[in-house]
Amino acid sequence: MSEPTPAWASVLPDEDYQHSFGLKAGSAEKFFAPTERHADLLAQRRHWLRNDPARCAALLPGAESLLEETIAFARQWGAPVSNRREATTLDSPVGHRRSDFADCLALGGAWEPDYLLLKQDAATGRFHLLGGCVCFPSSWRFEEKVGRPLEVIHTPVPHLNEQLASPIHNFLSRIKPGAAWCRANWGLSRSPELNQHPARGLPKLRPPLREDEVWLRVEDQALVALPESRGVLFGIRMTVIPLAEVKRHPAAACGLARALRTMPDTMLDYKSLLAAKDDLLRLLESAI
Question: Cα dihedral angle (35, 39, 41, 44), rounded to 10 degrees?
Answer without folding.
Answer: 180
